[in-house]
Amino acid sequence: MAPTSYTKFHTNLQPISSSLLKAKTTSLTIIASTSNESPHLNPQQSSAAGKMKRLVLSPEGRTKFNALPDRDFYAYPRLVKHVDDGFISTLTNLYRQRLRPEMHILDLMSSWVSHLPDEVNYTRVVGHGLNAQELAKNPRLDYFVVKDLNEDQRFEFESCCFDAVLCTVSIQYLQQPEQVFAEVFRILKPGGLFIVSFSNRLFYEKAISAWREGTAYSRVQFVVQYFQCVEGFTEPEVVRRLPSEDDNKGSDSPVGWIMRLFGLMAGSDPFYAVIAYRNFKPVYD
Ligand SMILES: C[S@@+](CC[C@H](N)C(=O)[O-])C[C@H]1O[C@@H](n2cnc3c(N)ncnc32)[C@H](O)[C@@H]1O
């Protein structure tokens, strides 16, 4: 297993243990379960939950144009925004609806910005990514972890230690997404959720071929299937927000058209998110 490096800003360096994360509990009521596993069972003792049932991608679908190590590609910090303000405000609103202040959150494949709502203080936010300088600049992170998920899909986090895992505009870079989703299942608490959001932008040379060659529809279907191939996730829910005419106001003027032509002004970024819960979707009091 490749080593994982941990960095924590405010106290000593150490991996997060689930005992640390048990400080606050959430009041919840279970309304539905899509698996036979009771949320009160110790998930370590439950049988098939988290098991990968099948592979979604073919070997060819996992290939990238740039086959050099991802760490090299992300070696220098990119302090840019990867999507436009419309995408970010849709995502932040989704987080406002789905996340709660007492949560322990992992921001997978993160960078220097957070899309979490500013006004909410979460119990703990852990970041993961490939560039330590980017992650160190992210003001929302209590800890961060640097790890190449294409080399090794196992985290050193204990099982059931996060209430929510987020992955923003990065899923297209995973070459072993099935294993990563199984790992996310393992580290989520029962009732915890995984929110995967994406648009149509990408580092072309680093995106897997299945994604590069896909359409908006097939990309959503890939993410849905990544969830479905792991036993115990609830049926994935798809959230879409396609650009409206208002979003593009001004960009169809001659100046807007010329700026778009030269890449100086983008059209609005479409928003897609796929969400599923570990075992059951909680309803909060
Ligand atoms: C387009 S950026 C998105 C960053 C951030 N989620 C955001 O919303 O701004 C893609 C991120 O994926 C991460 N990434 C790419 N390949 C990776 C890999 N093999 N393992 C882990 N992280 C990776 C990089 O660290 C990079 O920050």
UniProtKB/TrEMBL annotation:
Domain Methyltransferase type: 133-196
Record InterPro entries: Methyltransf_11 (IPR013216), SAM-dependent_MTases_sf (IPR029063)
CDD domains xref list: AdoMet_MTases
Example GO molecular function: S-adenosylmethionine-dependent methyltransferase activity
Name assigned to this protein: Methyltransferase type 11 domain-containing protein
Species of origin: Acacia crassicarpa (northern wattle)
